[in-house]
């Protein structure tokens, strides 16, 4: 079994640079079956767009750009592989005034052969018989150029398959009308959970009103939450991790309901199928924060179907 997506290089060896949470297609997945699986991922993206659903995908611009026909550059590679791009930049200026690299120490900065480490942590030959070719000062331009080309095209076939699958659901000729950021938003929704945006798409079922003290406390607590905590809250009340791109895409608004137990020791009760929560009338912000955090970190499953036989429904 080989995973279709692998963590980006920035997330490895303790983490370095930005976008450490993102994933990249696995370069090792090149078989016909793998390519058809990537096409299916593209179809899922198309269904998400057509049906106003959200996919919880954290993919870099290196993937999104080709889907809308934009060219990928080294800047895109740098957002997920800062070490490799740092090496390319250093080698590109070798011998120039101010550079630390010269003919005398060049071989200290390059590997022993024309190879690179791919996104899947496997060695990739930059050219035929690359393992038998040693990078030298004389062939440095060839080495740098091959390294750039390989980094830019390492997952080209996988992304092309995703685009092909996407094109079976959404007219592919329309994709260049959007930026890659817009396409990501249409497929995945808003990555950052804006509490004011959620509040503007919230309803209150009587006797709960927008002006109730515990409702105001809820918005304060959510604004104090980190991005990951907000994501957990959204998953707790809706089973999803992102909000729709447009207000019109909310098939149901977030709803705050009355709760039978209104003590500071009560826990909120969510109804993921209806995007709603029974919110106790907490009188202390600290109590609300504590109970909501407990609920969202300990209730990861959106239902009890998998454990229904072990539930004592009489309690």
TrEMBL record:
Keyword Transmembrane helix: no
UniProt superkingdom: Eukaryota
Nucleus is among the record's keywords: no
Domain HECT positions: 4-305
Keywords attached to this entry: Ubl conjugation pathway
GO molecular function, one term: ubiquitin-protein transferase activity
InterPro entries in the record: HECT_dom, Hect_E3_ubiquitin_ligase, HECTD3
PROSITE patterns the record matches: HECT
Active site annotation, chain numbering: 273
PANTHER family assigned: E3 UBIQUITIN-PROTEIN LIGASE HECTD3
Protein name: HECT domain-containing protein
